[in-house]
Amino acid sequence: MCGRFAIGADPEEIGFRFDVEVPELTPAPRWNIAPTDSAPIILNEGDGRRMLSAKWGFPFPSRKGLAINARVESVTSKWMFRSAAMWNRCLIPATGWYEWTQSRDGKDPHHINTTERIIALAGLWESDEHGRRFTIITRPAIESIADIHNRMPLVITESEWDSWLNPNDSTAASRSELMDSSQSFTFSSRRVGREVNRATAEGVHLQQRLDSPE
Q: Which among 40, 57, 55, 50 has a CA at the least distance from the CA of 95?
């Protein structure tokens, strides 16, 4: 799963990367975005790309908790995601994400990123009386980072952005080539300090490589 990510870029840089206008009150760079936090998403409701703010996590209708991830293998068949997968797809700008490995004395965080400064994570969004929300689509981890976690966000290449966002195409989420999109990137990981384990921790220092055990 993907339970924490970062967008370490200014709003203007995100706007330039995705060719969208930057709305007012867009948050500054965030280095530790956690479920329920707000983050910018890119969507298209038929009038071109827009950047809006949304909270991370789809609420479950019959129990507590949030669906922060949706598996690409089943996103078009699960009732909770089926409609959004057809009509409400989005991109989530990110500069990397975190995953954890278990050690004898706790969980060790790792920051994962690519050679591209800003990437686009595939996502779904929905809106109700409580506001706009998003969830991140995941896929099986590629070999280079599978030793950290067996799942990873579905990262979409720029050539696929418009197809993914197209509100008139209800089949985009079921295309097999989307699964291969992440293979186009070179991923790297580094172990970082456990301060990032706290959802309230913030700052670029959270991504500094940890060279020795804490």
A: 40
Domains in the chain: boundaries: 5-207
28-56, pLDDT tens digit by residue?
Answer: 799 999 999 999 999 998 889 999 999 99
What is the share, in percent, of the chain residues with pLDDT greater than 70?
A: 98
> What is residue 115's three-state secondary structure?
coil
CATH fit for domain 5-207, picks 3.40.50.1240, 3.90.1680.10, 3.40.50.2000, 3.40.50.720 = 3.90.1680.10
**Token couple for 163:** 């197809």
For 81, the enclosing helix (H) or strand (E) is helix 79-87
Mean pLDDT of the chain: 92
Task: Tell me the one-letter amino acid at 65.
Answer: G
Close Cβ partners of 207 (under 8 Å, ≥ 6 residues apart): 6, 8, 31, 96, 111, 190, 192
CA 79 from centroid of its chain's CA atoms: 21
**CA neighbours closer than 13 Å in the CB half-sphere of residue 115:** 5
CB of 121 closer than 8 Å to CB of 136: yes
- pLDDT, position 182: 87
Q: What's residue 212's pLDDT? A: 53
Q: Which of 206, 18, 32, 49 is nearest to 118 (CA)?
A: 18
